[in-house]
Amino acid sequence: MSLFKRLWNEETAAVVSAEAVMVGSIVVVGATVGLKTASTAVNEELTDVAHAIRSLDQSYHYDGFKTNRAFTASSSFTQRPVADSLRDLCGTADATDVSDDTSAEAKKPQLLEPTPPEEPEEAEAPSA
């Protein structure tokens, strides 16, 4: 029974466990904020890489040739302008992603809002 009384009256471990909980909470909050910041930075960098790859012009033209025994056909491909492709892919009113403005707001595509259908006006009943 004396062992139980000693453990019941001992308070030194309570301070250590409270400090451990406080330090653990600070670590979890710091890790959460750090991971959010890292996630945002990685997302922005990958977006920049995607826009850079999309901005590459992939147009080509190959002239065919003809000999006495064989010939090859010509081939060509002309890439659509980036602004047109972004308008089709993102449903944007204007393709602001291709501008030189590097602000975060300029990089966000402006989505087209659907217009609500007009409600028919109700005819007033003739008064008696």
Description:
The protein is mainly alpha-helical and 128 residues long. It has 4 helices and 2 strands, in the order ααββαα. The chain folds into 2 domains: 41 residues; 52 residues, no CATH class. The chain has a two-stranded antiparallel sheet. The longest helix has 43 residues. The protein is elongated. It starts with a helix and ends in a 21-residue tail after the last helix. About 5% of the residues have low confidence.
Give the uncertain stretches in residue-range form.
97-102
Strand order of the largest sheet: 1-2
The average pLDDT value, as a whole number, equals 76
How far is it from the N-terminal to the C-terminal residue, by CA? Answer: 97 Å
Q: Can you give the helix content as a percent range?
A: 40-55%
- Structural Rg: 33 Å
Number of strands: 2
What overall form do the CA principal axes indicate? elongated
Number of helices: 4
> Biggest β-sheet: count, sense, barrel?
2 strands, antiparallel
Sequence of secondary-structure elements: HHEEHH
Structural class: mainly alpha
In short:
The chain is mainly α and 128 residues long. It is 50% helix and 5% strand.
What's the topology here?
Blueprint: H1 2-9, H2 12-54, E1 60-62, E2 75-77, H3 82-90, H4 104-107
Antiparallel strand pairs: 1-2
